[in-house]
Amino acid sequence: MSRATPLETEAPAASAVSEIESSSSDDERSEEGSVRPAGAGARTGAGPLRTPLYGPAAPDAKFDAKRSSIRVAAMAVPPAVPLTDHGLLPWAGVLLWPLLLTLPLMLSSPLSVTSYREVFPAGWYEYDPATDDPKPLGLTLGLLAVVIGQVFVLAFFSLYRGRYLTRGVEPTPVQAKGARAYTFGEGIRTHLFQPEGFVLLGLYLSLTWMFGLMPPSYYSFEGSIQWTNLVACLVLQDGIQYAMHMAEHQVSVEIYKISHKPHHRFTNPRLFDAFNGSMADTILMILIPLYSTANIVRTCNVWTYMAFGSMYANWLTLIHSEYALPWDCIFRKFGLGTPGDHHVHHKLFKYNFGHLFMWFDMVGGTYRRPERFAPRVFNKGI
Questions:
Q1: Which residues have CB under 8 Å from 346's CB, separation 6+?
Q2: What does the radius of gyration of the chain's CA atoms come to, in whole angstroms?
Q3: Cβ atoms < 10 Å from Cβ of 82
Q4: In 3D, which of 197, 166, 376 has the Cα closest to residue 282?
Q5: What does pTM read for this prediction?
Q6: CA 332 to each of CA 202, 246, 267, 287, 381: distance values in angstroms, whole numbers, following the listed order
Q7: What's the CA gap between 359 and 193, in Å, rounded?
Q8: pLDDT band at residue 85 using 50, 70 and 90 as cut-offs
Q9: With contact defined as beta carbons under 8 Å apart, do 263 and 281 qualify?
Q10: Sign of the CA dihedral 230, 111, 310, 336?
């Protein structure tokens, strides 16, 4: 038998299933707010003991019948069509990734047919940190870059979820029990207008920009996207977010309750749940890492900051998808975050704390590959 590599370190599948069945096994129960600290309500009987991570409630006798009905219902779900059987059309979605950088590339790339210098007066973008106050053009374009990225993400997901890219069959759900039912319009409204989501993020970006709290280089329009800095920002942001995420789970039950617990009511998340949580969660796990990253990678220009914002916000949205995405098999080979990886965290609470990169989990021993760790819970080939 070959020895498992660090990328595929996993517990036996049987124990994973037992653990999941002993956790909050459906969205209905989790949305009732029944999450409590591990170890609470000590008992005897089947199911493993909890580690000191604040997650789903341990099983209780009164839920045995409910769990049995869930298993029966899960058996009635028709088998998912493997992602490889959808043909080549879904791979058109790969074009989504360069489209996330549409605005900064269009206005700053030497290969572009236009330039910000041709579009805007010099007084709108020329900046001397010694004498000038921050100008709103960079902020406006940065927010617009994220909006444009979201438009492309939602357009792709509408076509993908609507079966237009999968030859009329449902895309492969991440979880074996299938994707949650909802209307696309309701999903968009929930996604865009959560105060702890894009509203709070927009406020943070506006205040830090207009009050001159960013490093001076971030206000510079010179050059184009600095690709090395862009990668550094994404990795550093996710590393700090990984640490904050683990801290929310482990440091204090009270911190967990007021911050991250509202987001964990979704044990079978959908794309539109990405920013659905609490103000405290957004501040601790997104805004603090964002500001820390900007003050560590201090040489970005406005185009790099813009590209980072669009890539980060839209990638974070995509990993909450209820469906496996066409590029997931490639992403997983390089340890890049996928919906399947993130669903493991929403389902089990104590694995896969990373978001964009699974490298930190692999190093820390908290990574679990979904369909190998729990093949009865996650669909094959996701």
A1: 264, 266, 267, 268, 269
A2: 22
A3: 13
A4: 197
A5: 0.81
A6: 31, 22, 21, 27, 11
A7: 32
A8: low
A9: yes
A10: negative
- Scanning the structure block, which residue is given the tokens 């960013």? 214
Handedness of CA 356, 179, 22, 16 (dihedral sign): negative
CB 341 within 8 A of CB 323: no
Distance CA 255, CA 21 (A): 26
Q: For residue 148, which amino acid is it?
A: I
In degrees and rounded to multiples of 5, residue 357 shows phi and psi of: -130, 140
Residue 296, pLDDT > 70, answer: yes
DSSP string for 255-289: HHHHTTGGGGG-SS--GGGTT-S-HHHHIIIIIHH
Alpha helices in the chain (DSSP H): 13-21, 27-31, 64-76, 96-99, 102-108, 116-119, 122-125, 136-161, 184-193, 200-210, 227-250, 253-258, 279-282, 288-296, 302-318, 328-333, 339-348, 359-364, 370-373
Please provide residue 351's backbone torsions phi and psi, each rounded to the nearest 5 degrees.
-130, 165
Instruction: Count the alpha carbons within 13 Å of 256 in the hemisphere toward its beta carbon.
Output: 22
End-to-end CA distance of the chain: 24
Going by pLDDT thresholds of 50, 70 and 90, the confidence category of residue 268 is very high
In residues, how long is the chain?
382
Structural domain spans, the chain = 6-76, 83-373
Q: What is the DSSP string of 37-99?
A: -TT-S---SSSPPPPSS-BSPPP-GGGHHHHHHHHHHHHHSPPPPPGGGG-SGGGGGGGHHHH
Question: Residue 349 in contact with residue 23, Cβ under 8 Å?
Answer: yes
- Could you give the CA distance from residue 15 to residue 48 in angstroms, rounded to a whole number? 8
Token pair listed for 76: 């009635």
* Structural contact between residues 142 and 309, judged by C-beta atoms closer than 8 angstroms: yes
Q: Report yes or no: 346 and 271 within 8 Å, Cβ to Cβ.
A: no
Q: Helix (H, G, I), strand (E, B), or coil: what is residue 189? A: helix
* Burial status of residue 42 (CB atoms within 10 A of its CB: 0-12, 13-18, 19 or more): exposed
Q: Using a pLDDT cut of 70, give the percent of the chain over it.
A: 77
Which residues are bridge partners to 55 per DSSP? 36
DSSP 8-state code for residue 355:
S
